[in-house]
Amino acid sequence: MAIASSTPTTQPYPPVAFIGLGAMGFAMSTHLVRTGFPVTGYDIYGPTLDRWRATCKEIASASTSTGTTYATATSPAEAVRHASVVCLMVANHHHVHSALFDTQGGAAAVHALPRDVTVIIHATIPPTQPSSVRDRLTREFGRPDVKLIDAPVSGGVARSINGTLTIMVSSDDVDNLQDPNAKVVLENVASEGKTLFPIPGGLGAGQSAKALNQVQCGIHIPAASEIMGLAAINGLDTQKFYDALTARETAGGNPPVGWSWMFENRGPRMLSATPPLASATLIINKDVGIIRDEEVRLNVELPLLNTASDVITEVMKTHAAADDSCIVQSYLGFGSEREGLVVKQAGAGKSSAEATNQDNGGQASDRMTRDIATAHALIHLVAARETTKFAQALDLMRPEQKRQWFSIIAGAAGGSTVFSEVIPRAFEDAEGVEAGFQKYAQEKFPGALEMATGLLANAKKQGYMPVLLEAAVVNLKKLLT
């Protein structure tokens, strides 16, 4: 395991082993290298490891002050041998166990973990799994000295690169969260600690908080595609539609109704004929699968989330490894003439709706934009309600817990304008959470159900199936009656 650049004589940061260099792990680990941490990277896929090494070499060449060091390893055991902190950003809990315990021939990390090392699980895994890892460390391998932190992240690749991720941390010993080595690593990738949230409740509590965020994300990702496709089949300029839903009146202004973090993030990739691979469909499919398993375990139903899961599962059949922005093409029809309709209508000048309505100066186009944005907001409203139901099932409804998970989601990848507005109101309503949702829906969206029903009927005539909007309408009708 050769160090690929000169090692400084004094090192202000602890040595880190980073296992799992996919999109998120790659960005997080190279951010640590850029900061000045000595990082040893490992990934099971050789070309990824080669790319990581090349990127770190560029960072080291450009560095004038940090004395950047980095190394690559050929096994998890080799990666962790000299680490003070081990970060795991692998695909799922099976890979967590494999890297730590089950790699063949003595190459598993557990065989080389230094005394009193801290292991941080960044991967999104079922809430029951961190305790399973703790049990194996202690009982099976006799390593109670290893400090274990459950720390799932939210924020996407861009925030990984910038070190501004939202991270939800928990442990079986709260003192582990104050360990200087672990703390400096976590704070470095979480806005210098500003977006680092300690979650009470022991191991798995961080994953439960992440699962709440993923209810939102699991609905919002296909919803963003569904609504962009709906704009396209209704003849709107899709670039203008995207701009309208992501506009801010001022730099710090609130986004409009219909905005979600996922729509703003995925929109540019939907509008591109050659989108980069930033988040594969299989990732959100895995995260939603965890929630569906939790539905069974907790005996709670999340109908809109389940509908979203069905959409994602269908895309998985042919596009599991593609960027999840391809879901919009699934709605329009993979391989059909209108598969690329969103791209075709992006920035095309006058939309077809405006051209048809020149006599009223494009007012019909503006009205259609508002209607589809409102339809998107209705989906967000039901998503927020299901998130609250899931929080109740997870027993996360004490006042301090509600404040915490609301703050986490509102500032993370599950955020939406509607979520930020309705959740505080629902919490504060004297008649209860359901009454708060009902009053918000009645006051914020009068007549919206009738409008959405019309959009649905028109879309179906064109062979377009907005299944999330349809499920949201059914749910809201029940809420309002």
Automatic annotation (TrEMBL):
Protein name per Swiss-Prot or TrEMBL: 3-hydroxyisobutyrate dehydrogenase
Residue span of region Disordered: 346-366
Annotated PANTHER family: 3-HYDROXYISOBUTYRATE DEHYDROGENASE-LIKE 1, MITOCHONDRIAL-RELATED, L-THREONATE DEHYDROGENASE
Pfam families assigned to the protein according to its UniProt record, in alphabetical order: NAD_binding_11, NAD_binding_2
Highest classification ranks of the organism: Eukaryota, Fungi, Dikarya, Ascomycota, Pezizomycotina
Domain 3-hydroxyisobutyrate dehydrogenase-like NAD-binding: 204-329
Start and end residues of each 6-phosphogluconate dehydrogenase NADP-binding domain: 16-174
Bias kind Polar residues: ranges: 353-363
Domain of life: Eukaryota
Organism expressing this protein natively: Cladophialophora yegresii CBS 114405
